[in-house]
Structure formats: C-alpha cells, structure tokens
TrEMBL record:
Originating gene: glmS
Enzyme Commission code(s) on record: 2.6.1.16
Organism, scientific name: Halomarina halobia
Quaternary structure annotation from Swiss-Prot or TrEMBL: Homodimer.
Domain SIS: 41-179, 211-351
Localization, UniProt: Cytoplasm
Catalytic residues as annotated in Swiss-Prot or TrEMBL: K356
Entry protein name: Glutamine--fructose-6-phosphate aminotransferase [isomerizing]
UniProt keyword list: Aminotransferase, Cytoplasm, Glutamine amidotransferase, Repeat, Transferase
Keyword Transferase set for record: yes
Residues of the full protein shown: 245 to 605 of 605
Main location: cytoplasm
C-alpha cells in the first residue's frame, strides 16, 4: 500500500534515504577509500578501453551522469539512447564495456542495444533493479541497484539508486584501468556514506513545495546544467513533463544562447542546477535569463548560494561532493514536479499514455 501517502510517487520519494542505504550497503569502505563490489573479482575491468552506456528515459539520464564521471577519470565513456544505439551502433569490440542501465530490465530498446553490442563482441553489464529480469539473461554480468519495488510510473528512487550504484561502478572501473584509486575517491565515498542523511534533510526542507506553489501553471519550464548537472536538468524536465503535463525542456547551459534563449519569457521559469566546483558560467547564463524577465530558480549547495542570491528562488541542498550533489538536486526537482502536478490535479501515479515498462519499440 501507500503507507498513508496520497501517491506512490511521494512514498517512493520519501523512501530514498532507505533505498540509497540499501544500494550502498556493504559496498563503500569510506575509511579505506575503497569501493567493494564482490560481484567483480579484482582486475575485472583492467582491459576496458571505453564504456558505452545504453538506456532510455530516466535511466539514460543516469547513464549520462555516469559517463561524465568516467570521462572526468580519463576513461572514454558515452551514454547512448538505447533505441539510437540499436539503429546506428557505434564501433565496439572486446575492450568495450557496454553498460545497460534499466530499472525494469525489460525495456525493448535497451535489450536490442545489448544484442547489438554482443554481436560486435563487446562485454555487457546490466545495472538493474529487478533480479531475474530479461536484461540479466542477456548480459555477461549484473549489478543490482537494490532500490526495492517502484510502483509509480515516474522513476524517482530508482534514478537516485542508479546514480549511486553507477558512481561506485565508475570508481571501480577507473581503479581497475589505472591501477590506483582516483584522487578524490576518499572524499567521494565519504560523501556517499552521508547521502542517506543528506537526502533526509532535503525531504525535510519545504522550499521545493513553495516554489511549486508560486510557479505552477506557467507556459513552460526549462532546466539547465553543465556536466553531470546537465543530466540532472534533463531528468528534472522529464519528470515535470511526465506527471504535470506541462511543457518542460532541459538544456546544457552552454546551449542556451544557441537557440533556446529565444523561448524565454516572464512565463517560463528556468531552473539552474549548480552542483559543480566552479559555476561562474552557469551563474552568468542565469543572469541573462533573468534579464529577459524569466523567474530563475537555483538548486545548489551553500558553496554557491551567496553568488546565486540574485535568483528569484534558491533551493538549497547540503554541502557535499559534486557527484553526490547531483543526486540531492534531483530529489529537490522530484519534489517540485510532484507538488506542481498535484496542484494541477494530475493522476500522478498513472500519467496518461505512459506505461511503467516499455516492452515494444
Ligand atoms: C521516467 C521513466 C521512463 C523510464 C524508461 C526506461 O520516469 O520511468 O523514462 O526511465 O522507460 O525504463 P527502464 O529503466 O525500466 O529501462
């Protein structure tokens, strides 16, 4: 049941401290600065030359997030929309690791991409929530995100658990390839250990609800970010369009001036996800948007909060490492979408035209 919550989505949003605890359980040795994934014997990934993520929708955004983390470790990585990968497969061989990210493990596009990757000779790894799902039968290896069952059509707790699991996997791959733990591993793993408590702080903060109450019913909603925060921006927009039926789009902050800025008016609130180390450029982008009259909402840590004080709304998240900050920003955006959809009277757990699992392309 819904345990007293009006919707499964709100229940699942509130379950995230616990689902993340399950995802991370036994896998993080923060003191030693080591990731412990017994699924993969030592050296499993030492021959990997490139990583290709294949996934759809929310899972694709988790793959994008992971690809930017691996790239930062110096490992060539890219996230493909699985449907596009299956139609137009990129070069892959035995030193390519193809990671299929799929909550259900049943998404047809993703299964097809895995088949294409296998026939090219690539190694395949499933990152999924469902034990015994089709993707686990199609892939060489598997890593379970352990988020628990998700009933709401909109993916919430499975996204945060995917990102957490992929962060561990990324550290592990980088460690095997380079032979050493990454420079930031200890800080990152300490931040991940704090994540369940940090998510609880976000859930106890009422700002997302106030922003939804102030801004629901506008013409459109835009979301921008850079690097991993670009994936968070895309996910924020996907959640908003799915459950509120409002027009919502995510853009790379760098893309804004190359077209999307023409859409900005006083009736198009724009959310900036500022979770990187240096966000000077994104802050400047947001000032330009504000000068065109659009309400600007910044989701950020205390590190950038004073520089962002010009914004119409600042939604704060606890101070943490950038890789973990994106997860916290995502939870705030889940809440904004949820409350906006609720104020608009939408059927939040079963949005029109959508299915929880897309088994036909
Ligand atoms: C969005 C959503 C969809 C799924 C997509 C992939 O909230 O739920 O975009 O993320 O259909 O599904 P899985 O992860 O099961 O492959």
């Amino acid at each position: 049941g819904k345990s007293g919550y009006p919707h499964y989505m709100l229940k699942e949003i509130n379950e995230q401290p616990e689902s993340l605890r399950q995802t991370l359980h036994g896998r993080v040795d923060a003191l030693a600065g080591k990731v412990d994934l017994p699924e993969f014997p030592p050296g499993t990934f030492e021959d990997v030359e490139q990583v290709q993520f294949v996934a759809m929708g929310t899972s694709h955004h988790a793959g994008m997030y992971a690809a930017s983390m691996l790239t930062a470790h110096g490992i060539p990585a890219h996230a493909y929309m699985a449907g596009e990968y299956a139609d137009c497969p990129p070069p892959a061989d035995g030193r390519t690791l193809v990671v299929a990210v799929t909550q259900s493990g049943e998404t047809a596009d993703t299964l097809n991409a895995v088949r294409r990757a296998r026939s090219a000779g690539a190694r395949t790894l499933a990152v999924t929530n469902v034990v015994g799902s089709s993707v686990t039968r199609e892939c060489d290896d598997e890593l379970f995100i352990r988020a628990g069952p998700e009933i709401g059509v909109a993916a919430t707790k499975t996204f945060t658990s995917q990102v957490a699991a992929l962060t561990l996997l990324g550290e592990r791959i980088a460690g095997d390839v380079t032979g050493v733990a990454s420079a930031g591993a200890r800080d990152l793993l300490a931040a991940l250990s704090e994540l369940p408590g940090d998510v609880q702080q976000v859930l106890d903060d009422g700002t997302a609800r106030e922003v939804a109450e102030a801004l629901y019913g506008c013409d459109a909603y835009f979301f921008i970010g850079r690097g991993p925060a670009y994936a968070v921006a895309l996910e924020g927009a996907l959640k908003m369009k799915e459950i509120s039926y409002e027009h919502a789009e995510g853009f790379a902050a760098s893309e804004l001036k190359h077209g999307p800025l023409a859409l900005v008016t006083p009736e198009t609130p724009l959310f900036g996800v500022l979770t990187g180390k240096d966000e000077t450029k994104t802050l400047n982008n947001l000032k330009e948007v504000q000068a065109r009259g659009a309400p600007v909402i910044v989701v950020t840590t205390p590190r950038h909060a004073s520089a962002a004080s010009f914004a119409d709304y600042v939604i704060e998240i606890p101070e943490t490492e950038p890789e973990a900050a994106g997860i916290l920003a995502n939870v705030q955006l889940q809440l904004v979408s949820y409350y906006a959809a609720d104020l608009l009277g939408r059927p939040i757990d079963k949005p029109r035209n959508l299915a929880k699992s897309v088994t036909v392309e």
